[in-house]
Amino acid sequence: MGEPVSVIQKPSAQHGVIRFETNRSFTGMGHESYNAGQVIWGHRPPDDVARIMLGSGKVARVHVYGQSVSVELAPGANADGLKELLEGLYIHYKPGVDVPTEESFSG
């Protein structure tokens, strides 16, 4: 079913940059950066974070380090809904999606 990610949204000292602190480590000790328009080939946790954030159309750049996610907003964009994207990252059966039954797996 998945488990929600706990997220705290924090302002940054830089205008147009929002920080999110989570209860999940996405990169270990590595830094990962992604830009809008960049093809994200991987399927690691930081790739998934970047994919959903950039896919919102509100984000120009994503930086992931451990359990911190920083986003640079696209010009004219606001952060509304970005926190919720991270919170739902690992929820697989969202409202409106049927949960599989045993019968759905049998041939």
Task: Tell me what you see in this structure.
- The structure is a single chain.
- The model has no long low-confidence stretch (mean pLDDT 88).
- 20% of the residues lie in helices and 27% in strands.
- With 107 residues, it is α+β, with helices and mostly antiparallel strands.
- The protein has helices at 45-55, 82-87, 102-105, and strands spanning 7-11, 17-22, 31-35, 59-65, 68-73.
- It has 3 helices and 5 strands.
Task: Identify the notable features of this structure and list them briefly.
single chain; 107 residues; alpha+beta; Ribosomal Protein S8, Chain: A, domain 1; globular
List the helices and strands and how they pair.
Elements: E1 7-11, E2 17-22, E3 31-35, H1 45-55, E4 59-65, E5 68-73, H2 82-87, H3 102-105
Antiparallel strand pairs: 1-2, 2-5, 3-4, 4-5
Helix and strand succession?
A: EEEHEEHH
User: What structural class is derived from the secondary structure elements?
Assistant: alpha+beta
Q: First CA to last CA: what distance?
A: 22 Å
Strand content: 25-35%
Percent range for helical residues? 10-25%
For the sheet with most strands, the description reads: 5 strands, antiparallel
What is the average per-residue confidence, as pLDDT, rounded to a whole number?
88
CATH architecture annotation name: 2-Layer Sandwich
Number of helices: 3
Task: For the largest sheet, list the strands in their spatial order.
Answer: 1-2-5-4-3
Shape: globular
Classified by CATH, the class is Alpha Beta
